Amino acid sequence: MMQPVEGGRGKMQHHNGQYRYTPSDLVEFFESSFASWMSRLHLDYPERAQPDPEAPEVAILAAKGVEHEHAVFTQLRAEGRDICTVPQGGDRTALTVAAM
Fold it and tell me: Residues 49, 42: contact at Cβ < 8 Å?
């Protein structure tokens, strides 16, 4: 079973002895290797490290990001592009590979 890490920037996961990192996890690493290390510590030992509460600005930025993604999606669909949406939940890696 995959264990996503909450907190940090991305949704780092641990599955079958392997770590899976999102692009946001990589951004976090390049901005602060310490923050990335803490996210990994929280994934491996959640009782040892708790992420800081999310700042309200982060929610606003996240909403803007979703808004942008929706606009790009709408534009691509209007251009007649073949688009596949990977639903939330489940094994998104397998679903993405299947869609390709």
Answer: yes
Query: CA 69, CA 63: separation in Å to the nearest integer?
Result: 10
Model pLDDT for residues 63-89, shown as the tens digit of each residue:
999 999 999 999 999 999 988 888 877
Please name the residue ranges forming H helices in the chain: 23-31, 33-44, 56-78, 92-99
Cβ–Cβ under 8 Å, residues 37 and 48: no
Secondary structure class of 84 (helix, strand, coil): coil
pTM (whole model) above 0.85 = no
Specify burial of residue 29 (Cβ count, 10 A radius: 0-12, 13-18, 19+): buried
Reduced to 3 states (helix: H, G, I; strand: E, B; else coil), residue 72 is helix
3-state secondary structure of 20: strand
So where are the chain's domains?
1-53, 54-100
